[in-house]
Amino acid sequence: MQNESDDDLSPFEQRTVEITFPLVPKAASRMLDSKQEFDYRERREEFAKWLLLEGKDTRDIEGYSQATAKRTMYRVSYFERAVWEKKDEYVPVMTIEHANQYIEGLAYSDKSQSHKHHTLHALKRYFKWRHHEFGEPEWEPDRAFTVSNSQKPQDFFKEDERRKLRQTALEYGTIPSYKTVQTDEERRERLKPLVAEYHEKDVDDVGTDDWADIPSWKVTSLVWTSLDAGLRPVEVGNARTGWVDSDNAVLRIPKDESAKNEANWEVSLRRKTAKALNRWIQEREHYPEYDGTDALWLTQKKKPYDSKQLGRLLRKLCDIAGIDTARRDVSWYSIRHSVGTYMTREEDLAATQAQLRHLRPETTMKYDAAPVSDRRDALDRMG
């Protein structure tokens, strides 16, 4: 018997594609037994490959980007799980009736227009796949949802701007100069060991010239943590030293100290950020204003930060970094929106939901629009 050669395979079978995102969300896995999960994974893999290889245009064989495919798969799984819950059983293939009922319920829900709009389009891709690959009927939904600009994130910092902010924050800030502590003996004596450690000399050998330009980790740790965790202004003000787990590079935010008192949160940090936080926690022990408080960061007036003070700091950092903020609605939330936008692109909406501490998945959905740079790359590929 003659072995099957590549010539015997269909063009679709000859093409391969790497899937860079999880096929089975944890929420789906928890609802399935091992055999059902095997079946579900196989079906999801077929759908993912189709999206990536030819989902955008089956005639010209053009697929979606990994980011768009991830977002589509996430939304479809959300829909599938809703059907399973309603039927109280695993349903391997969604039907047009399922979709119509789901969208009708969605239309009258309090979920955002953005969530409704993007869910509808994800489901349309699912049924386009079922039609193209299995000859099932196409789905023409009766509903349509539009997204207003007010529901999209504010201006966010682009990737190169995030790098500039991170570098500027690294180089920004020094401990108080000798002149500012000259008449405050307690403050001066508390800071002396820090100066001595920096210059690697005995405390008794510290002179007035040694106080100049010694870097502080306060602003560095504050900005780096916000660039990782997307901290809201109120979270910067509420932040406590007990949140910091530098060994595991995470913030552990208790429910009663979180911004909306909704849940306990565990937020990932870069290893460098965790080390910067550790440096700052050691440094803050030398400042009398932190005695008797576990506040992680305080202003020069010994008060928690708020949006106004953070806005001033951000504008100063942007000026130093050469980041143009003219004709842009830039605020501390722009850092948070950049985390949401690029976390969604690099991972998925589930990762963004956890990182930004959203209790409701639909709150995270506004970050599923591809950044301008991604859309520009798409235009270049389109010709």
TrEMBL record:
Coiled-coil region(s): none
Taxonomic superkingdom: Archaea
Primary localization class, coarse: cytoplasm
Keyword match Nucleotidyltransferase: no
Protein keywords: DNA integration, DNA recombination
GO-annotated cellular components: cytoplasm
Domain Tyr recombinase, first and last residues per copy: 189-380
Biological process annotations from GO: DNA integration; DNA recombination
PROSITE patterns according to UniProt: TYR_RECOMBINASE (PS51898)
Subcellular localization(s) per the UniProt record: Cytoplasm
Protein name: Tyrosine-type recombinase/integrase
Protein species of origin: Halorubrum rutilum
Organism taxonomic ancestry: Archaea, Methanobacteriati, Methanobacteriota, Stenosarchaea group, Halobacteria
